[in-house]
Amino acid sequence: MKILTLLLMVIVGCCAKENLQDASFLFYKSSDTSRVVLKPNITEPLINMTVCLEVYTDVVRRDSLFKLQANNYSKPHFHLYQIRDHYYITIDEDQVIYKTTKETMRWRKICVSWEYVTGVVHFWVNGNLFPRRVLNPGFLIYPDSLAVLGQSLASAGLGSYRGEPTFVGEIKNVNMWDRAPYTWETYGNIIDWRYVEYETYGAVILYL
User: Which residue intervals define the domain Pentraxin (PTX) in the entry (predicted)?
Assistant: First the structure.
């Protein structure tokens, strides 16, 4: 039954709201179409936000990890992506960059908090807080946003050529809150990994 359920997920590419505890999205090969789209529960403009996710890969190139955007083709309101050992965080047109060490063969828990009034960004990797930065204070993230995992950077206007590869690896435990900074709660109130509405595209499966 588990195998049949997994095959159905791969074929139809989407599911209703579902408990994803102990599951991860497995991006199993490079593809310019691969992505997972989550539907956040955003009912009014975000004035604070926190997002956490866990990532596992041994191939770090130019990887979009998480972004919020109005639809599949618009420019992201918020974007977290990685190029080699640097993490980039953008809010609309503004950007900050964090340099980390190159690590493979272990999961990384990444959390980003952003405060509307001050623009202060908090960035954690595996519980370690990096120096705080300021990013686009006063910007509003509107409630029609979708959350996208693993899509090619070219889709956000950051790629240099059509067919740029997507993230290869696993992403799990994606949670999002409408508050900042992060208070180490387990599950979000905007995206809750126990109750997620999602769609998969391309070379991605839900692995239980």
Answer: 21-208
